Amino acid sequence: MTDAITCHSLSKSYSGVVALDDFSLSAPEGQVLGLVGPSGSGKTTALRLIAGFERPDRGSVAIVGETVVDNNTFVPPERRRVGMVFQDFALFPHMSLGDNVAYGLPKSAERKRRVAEVLEMVGLSGMERRMPHELSGGEQQRVALARALAPSPAVVLLDEPFSNLDAPQRERVRREVRGILVEARATALFVTHDQEEALAVSDVMAVMRDGTVLQTATPHDLYRKPADRWVARFLGEGEFLAGTVAGGVVDTELGRFPVNTHLSGPVEVLIRPEHVRLTEDAGGSALVVEREFYGHDQLVTLHLDGGRRLLARAGPDVIFNPGDHARYEITEVVVFEAATSLQPPASNKSA
Amino acid sequence: MPRLRVTLALLVALALVGSACGDDDGSATLTIYSGRSEDLVASLIDQFEAETGIAVEVRYASSTDLAATLREEGSNSPADVFFAQDPASLGAVAESGLFRALPADLLALVPAQFSDREGRWIGVSGRSRVVVYDSNRVSPEDLPVSVDGFTDPAWRGRIAIAPSNGSFLAFVAAMILERGEDATRDWLEGIAANAPQTFSGNSPIVAAANDGTVEVGLVNHYYLLQLRAELGEVTAANHFLTSAGPGSLVMPAGVGILATADNGEEAERFVEFLLSRTAQEYFVTETFEYPVITGISPDPSLPPLSSLTQPDIDLSDLAAALDRATDLVAEAGLL
Amino acid sequence: MTSAPTPAPVETPLAPPLPGTRRPRPRTRAPVWLWLPVMIALVPTVVPFGFLIGRVATEGTAAARVVLSANTARLVWNTSLLITLVVAATAAIGVAAAWITERTDLPGRRLWRVVVALPLVIPSYVIAMALLSATGPRGLVSDWFGFTIPSLVGLPGAWVALTIATYPFVYLTTATALRKMDPAHEEAARGLGATQWRVFRTIVVPQLRPSLGAGLLLVALYTLSDFGAVSLVRFDSFTRVVYAQYAGRLDRTPAAVLAVLLVLIALVIVWTERATRGRAAYHWRPVSRPARIARLDGGGRVAVTACLLLLALVSLGLPIGALVGWLGRGSGAGRPFPWGAVGGSVAGSLLAAGLVAVLALPTAVLVTRHASRATAWAERAAYTVFALPHITVGLAVVFFSARYLGGWYQSLTVLVLVYGSIFFAQALGSARSSLLQVSPSVEEASRSLGAGPIRTMLRVTAPMVRRGLVAGSLLVFLTTMKELPVTLLLRPTGFDTLAVNIWSAADTLLYSRAAAPALLLIAVSAIPMYLLATRER
Hints:
heterotrimer; A: alpha+beta; 5-stranded antiparallel sheet; 8 helices; 20 strands; 22% helix; C: globular
């Protein structure tokens, strides 16, 4: 499977501020890649470099094998086969939906048919005559997607596509958009600061920090086996302990657990709340200090003997109230090299 | 919408290009720089066009302005003919070598004192300097016998002059030629001390004298007659100064042909026309000036030319003194 | 400046981050060709000015002599005196009128707001001409009413004419400021026992000061730059003397030197205005409730209405009445209407408006989407050119084109290019304001869909900023119609405009000839003014 997008060692600075530093990424064809990182990590810059709205200081970008940027080349955005969906949708307000979607298509007999086709794909059949301001946010989102998809681009780029939607809409629209991308068999690269969104929508995820990629993997692998402490923290809740690995087992103050790792000796251990099973027990060693109820589950903060804090996720059926005692069981742990804070692994595809 | 913008852009481009090209098209159009006002000569020029079929384009401005412009334009000038109000402006252009010599037969039509010594320009109508006064407030006995009288403090606030006007500057140049710079400077300072009202031309002074806005003004003789012809009767009147001196100066308005003229032949025909009976009679009956060719009499209300005592100077020398005249006028604070 | 003030374009400082982005997008470098339109807009004025300054600099001692002469000192004194008087008068009238229409319960306020601002429609030279024709022993007032107002020439004439022409501007800015002011401060002061007058003095005026100051500096600039009015009333201020020196002397150096001096003074005023404007920029928070209205008793209402009536009479009634009065009189009655001048005015103004529309959009894109130090300088240059006294621009271009442009000298092309150059800032300001409302992502969307930068500008950007572009062009059309000095100096042989026609007639005291064209000019100016005013609402 060829890569739809290949970024190699991209660097970009603005007035002395480094936005991208040796950024490399490969987006496989036909998949949705989520590029995620905190504000200022450079993900939007990377997107704009791929689209061609900015020039990198160093590095290269290739789209479906064809180099669009390097030391000697710069292909302007209108000649890259890249579709883009913007955070504010950027629909042309003075044109109808049909004209918006048709904008990137050459004038031909096929045009009308293709417009109808993509509108149907996004679930807005027959609305060619409507104007953008008549639509809801979610509908505008879908038109923007249809417009980007209509010319059958090699790649679709999405810049924080869901941040302009209300919370209730967001999950539904997310699902719809992913469905459309999959059905169109499009290669998509979308950028977000919301790790939950990335986990939900991506086939592959790349985590960015300070201008470079820390780890690229499937969402599942990223979550279960983060490359370092920072990635782990970024992607979800958890508690860190010190531990020692010897012979396939890690020894911590909360017990001994089997691990599959090449590391040995002192390590850092991460315990995810999902891997802490809780049972009501008046005589249990854990004291419930706080509980956040989410409807579908609850996140419980426990105080253990010895002052150690632990987060646990429990189902919705049994409510744990502050002051209750409970029994806990740790089912799984993740280990890292000790004192891993700012390692810059290139693209760390941990298995 | 895009079509509209493109069309608009094209139209604009077309207009700009078209106009630029249009101006260069001087093939059959005679370009005249006229220091004489449109009011006075436009219909005469129309007659010329009608008679000869030659198309004419006229640029109207003050004679001094045009003389300076011609000197700046140099060989780039689009002008064919310079029709000026006074010999000083003509002389200034002649001294810069911008005129070509006029045909001898034309020069012969006009008395020698009304043309350039070297035949570079020729006078076509005569005009005398006068004092125009508001007869409601001033009587002829109150007026001084020469312009020097106006430096008397009794005339403070009552005089009007047109310091940027070609005729006035020529008059000052004549004063320099006759009396020298120091005397001229004294006279100008004396006038300035009397806080004269300054106007941009002669006809506003005459109109103002008629209106009662000014009491006396130093102008050319014919403006009053024109005003009378228009209004029927006027309260202002002309006073010809009797003593010899620059105040009685008679100067011709005249023409010269530019050496770089594209339409030299048409230009000569224009000069010829101005010296024809048609034009000379026009000058007598429409603009009330003195004719320069023989066989035509001026308006009966005017004193004959022979009775006007002239200062002893050669009009061809006026141009040389013009720069100094302007400087002195400026130094006196009038310009 | 032009012959009548029109609202000055405001340079907006760098825009705050657009909604939907968390921080401002970094600007990208502009393609080279995008600089072309702004160059076309700036070159026709900047290059000749460079040559003018060069010419003056090479004159050295002669220039110094002119600058240091007694005449020049007198000139500076005259001009300063006039500016001081006009500023004081417009401040008094503008603030008082603004207070009356915004902070009292005078009946008919809505109507007064329009009436008070109306003199903007009349060019300053028409006001001057009307005043001259009405006063004096042979004036209309003398004929109709028997008594004679002394002829308004010289300083008094210039003072009255320019005050009438510019006070609406002070009025408009002050009225807006009063409307937007937060009444909380005034209420607090009154709660502490301050009288109305003390509140006004200590609370309102300080808040007014920034916008009032800016408005008055602009009035100063207009007064300095005005040519039409001061030349007709024959008052020796800078503009009149520069022109007289130019027209009356064979040696053009004094005119050039004085022109450069005039420009320097104008620039000082412009820079002062720019420096003080910054403080006025973002003062306004949304006002939650309207300010307290002063109640006028019966006697007060009568007095105030009488004052406003007097103002309207002098600033509107007298000029228009005089023009109408002269319509049938004197030698003008028989003459044919100068339709050639109408054609010239309309053609020139249409071409100028079209030119700036074409140049303003790409330049707005340049300064907004590709902002950099260089574009900031270009913008500043455009606004500075706008502020230059037009008589000096005309002079500079005449000198330059007579010497270097050959056949293009005195062509309509050069005239339109100069029009476009001096009024460019008006269109740019409008286009820029419109463009700031548009998110750049729309343009990027167009690019990502395969449209190049030019196609994007035409198909996407232009329709979205159409309102701003049209407003800007309309404004330029209006100001070009009224423009006098540049037209006077640069027009091709045989090309006449209403402005030149009116002024030339008035200069030779032929008021009857000027009356009909003047009324037509006012009528034609009123249309775009009306359109602009209704659009703003």
